[in-house]
Design goal:
About 40% of the residues lie in helices and about 15% in strands. By secondary structure, the protein is α/β, with parallel strands linked by helices. Strand 2, helix 2 and strand 3 form a beta-alpha-beta unit. The longest helix has 22 residues. The structure holds nicotinamide-adenine-dinucleotide. The site of nicotinamide-adenine-dinucleotide has 28 residues, from helix 1, helix 5 and strand 5.
Length: about 325
């Protein structure tokens, strides 16, 4: 297995995964429509870095263009497909829900069709901790029911999990769905808390702290996350019907859902204090009520990831924040 087709390579996680695999000698074909959800210069810069490696090639187009998607994937003949392109963001799904239908429902369906027609070894796709929605039993475990999504973003990702299960069953596509927990690190997303906080503090602007800071997140450092993805690429789910409890496999198809998180929940105010300490500067704090659709806490049970790969993300948030701030200062020259 050495050819990997990755969608979302101009995005935060796809960029880091492609970089890791290229460094390890894989051939990677990236596919990304460079949507304008956030700064397209940041996306283009990520692609230009990947293109320095001759084992990387890229197609800049939308997932909704099935003809071209199938054409380039078929030409590349991947062993594995990692589907990370999506309309991400919990809050934006209140403003522009249709973009989630287009990218996440139609786009993911097109990737599943490609996977069915190309007979790949393993399809891996991104879901999210947001599918746990109103679940209150912590830490969140893959085997628990997830029927109470609170945002339309989460609903489209839950739909992806169901769509993927049916295709895995019908067409025997070995499929892994990841549930990621608040990923952060260098080259991160401008719409996410760490990026927004660092940029506001540096520019003497106030930061909005929702639910008066009574929020907890399982923050996952991006290098840890992509390392976990790489290890899972080799763990294609098989039909071990009696193994459901051990590996989280579906009883009827080669399908698996795996949390990738740090398995620690961090209070938002502690996270902000760590940012202040790295920057050597206090934030101007604007305490706000809870936002619509937000959940007060996320926390991953990562025992399945550990069982499958013998690996667990470990980076302390203080260290990860320092890496992010170093990158931010360097990239924006501040
Ligand atoms: N970052 C996190 O904390 C987090 C948490 C949970 C789940 N996820 C999921 O992980 C995946 C990667 O997230 P990310 O943080 O790298 O996001 P990102 O927005 O940085 O990357 C997504 C990429 O997909 C591309 N894209 C979007 N719609 C497209 C379409 N229709 N056709 C072609 N390209 C399209 C965008 O241009 C972007 O470069 C997403 O599926 C996201 O939902 C991320």
């Amino acid at each position: 297995m050495n050819k990997v087709f990755i969608t979302g390579t101009a995005g935060f996680i796809g960029f880091h995964l492609a970089k890791l695999l290229l460094n390890d000698g894989f051939k990677v074909h990236g596919y990304d429509g460079i949507t304008n959800y956030y700064d397209v210069n940041l996306k283009q810069k990520r692609h230009s870095i990947l293109l320095q490696n001759s084992n990387f090639d890229v197609t800049e187009d939308m997932l909704e263009n099935y003809e071209n998607l199938f054409y380039v994937a078929n030409k590349f003949q991947p062993d594995v497909i990692v589907h990370l392109a999506a309309q991400a963001g919990v809050r934006y799904s209140l403003e522009n829900p249709r973009s989630y239908i287009n990218s996440n429902i139609v786009g993911t369906f097109n990737i599943m069709e490609v996977s069915k027609n190309l007979k790949i070894d393993h399809l891996l796709m991104a879901s999210t901790s947001s599918v746990y929605g109103a679940n209150s039993k912590m830490p969140f475990k893959e085997s628990e029911k997830t029927d109470t999504q609170l945002t339309f973003y989460a609903a489209t990702k839950k739909a992806n999990e169901s769509m993927a299960h049916s295709y895995s069953y019908l067409w025997k596509i070995p499929t892994t769905m990841f549930r990621f927990f608040t990923v952060y690190g260098p080259w991160g997303r401008p719409d996410m808390a760490l990026f927004k906080f660092v940029s506001a503090i540096i520019n003497d602007k106030p930061i909005d702290i929702y639910n008066n800071g009574n929020m907890y997140r399982d923050f996952t450092y991006v290098d840890d996350l992509v390392h976990g993805i790489k290890l899972l690429m080799n763990k294609s789910p098989k039909f071990f019907h009696n193994d459901v409890k051990k590996t989280g496999n579906s009883p009827v198809s080669p399908y698996r859902i795996v949390n990738i998180g740090n398995s620690k929940k961090v209070n938002l105010l502690d996270f902000i204090e760590a940012i202040e300490s790295v920057l050597g500067k206090k934030a101007i704090r604007n305490y706000m009520p809870m936002q619509m659709g937000d959940v007060p806490s996320t926390w991953a049970d990562t025992s399945l990831l550990k069982k499958l790969t013998d690996y667990r993300p470990q980076t302390k948030f203080e260290d990860g924040i320092r890496q992010f701030v170093n990158w931010y200062r360097d990239y924006y020259n501040v």
